[in-house]
Amino acid sequence: MNQEQSRLMTPQDAFFKLIKLALGTCDDENVLLDESGWKTVYDMACKQALAGIVIDGVERLPMEQKPSYDVLMPWIGLVAKLEERNKRMNQLTVMVCDKFEDVGMGAVVLKGQGNSIFYPRPFHRTPGDIDLWMMVGRRQVVDYVRQLFPKMEAVYHHMDFPVIKDTGIELHFTPSWMNCWSTNRRLQKYFSKMKQSQWQHKVELPGRIGSVAVPTLELNRVYLLVHIYRHLFDEGVGLRQLMDYFFVLKQGFTADERTETVSMLKELRMTRFAAAVMYVLQEVFGLEEQYFLLPPSEEYGRKLLREIMLAGNFGKYDERISRSQNESVFHRFCRKVFRNGDFMADYPSEVIWSPLFKMWHYVWRLKNGYLPRKS
After folding, report:
1. Which residue in 146, 131, 136, 218 sits closest to 176, CA to CA?
2. Considering only CA atoms, which of 236, 326, 225, 227 is closest in space to residue 281?
3. Residue 86: pLDDT above 80?
4. Residues 268, 178: contact at Cβ < 8 Å?
5. Residue 107: enclosing H or E segment and its boundaries?
6. Cα dihedral 331/333/238/138 (nearest 10)
7. Residue 3, pLDDT above cutoff 50
8. 65 Cβ partners below 8 Å, 6+ apart?
C-alpha cells in the first residue's frame, strides 16, 4: 500500500464528514477518496435520501479533492430534479391545504415540506409525501374521502387520498401511535391537548408561494422522535428523518422546555431511544451538546446507527428483508413480528405489544368498516 492509499478515508467516514461540512458543524475541509470511494459515497447519499445535502458538503472541498466528472454530473442532475420537485411540492402543499380549508376541514402539515423551512437550503431536502393532520374527526375524514374513493381503506392513524397522480397524500386522524396500550393512550392524550394550537401555527413555505399550518417546535420535539421510533419497527428508518429532527433541535429550547419534552418521553418509555438518537445526531451530524435532550448513549446509539446504515431510507435497501409482491397479510404480519424480535432487549414494550396491536387493529378495522371495500 503506497502513502496516498494509506491516507484515503473510508467511504462511511467521508460520508459523515461531508454531511457535517454541509451543516456547518465541521471546519476541516479535507476528504480524501478514490473513484471507487466517491461512487460509494454517492450511493450512500442516495440510499439515505441525502444527495442534496451531501453535495453541499462536496462544494466546500478544495477543487483537487472533489469527485470526478463521471460521479459529479449525475449527482448534479439528481439535485436539480430535487430542487424542481421541492418547488412543485410546496405549491401542491399550499393548494391542498387551501382546498381543505375552503370546505371547512383545516389541516396541519406534518413532516415533509414543513420541516424544510429549517434547512439552510430547503430545496436540497429530499421531499416525500404530503402528510396532513386533519382538524376534524376520523369519521368525517373517512366519509369525505369515500365520496371520491368509495373503496379506500383506513388504518388507525391515516388514510390515503390519491387525488394527485404522482404525489402521495395521507390524511391523518392522529399524527402517530404506539403499540403499547398504555403509552399509546398517553400519546393520544398529548396530541389531543396540543391539537388546536397547531392549527394556529402558520409559516411561509420556501419560495413565497403561501403559508400553511405546521407543528410547533414543542410538538415536533416529541412527534418527530415518535415518527422515527415507528419507522424503526416498521421496515426501517433512514438518516433523512434524523436530519429533520436535528434541525428541529437546532432551533433551540429553554431548560424548562427541555424538562417538559423529556418528561413526555419518559411517559412514553422512550428515553433510551432518545439517548440513542442523540448519539446518532452527534456522530453523524455533529449536534452540539447544548442541543441534547438527554446524554447520548453510545451503546444503543451504535446499534441504531448500524440499523440505519443497513436499511437506508424507510428500509428500502435492507437486504435482510425478503419481500414478495404477492405477500399475504399473514406472511407480512409474521415477517414484521420476527424482525422486531431483534429489538426486544432494547425496546421490549413496543416489541411485546406489537403482535397484540396488529391483531386488535385488524378487528377494529373490520368492525368499523375500514378494511378495503370489495367490488
Report:
1. 131
2. 225
3. yes
4. yes
5. strand 107-110
6. 130
7. no
8. 30, 31, 32, 33
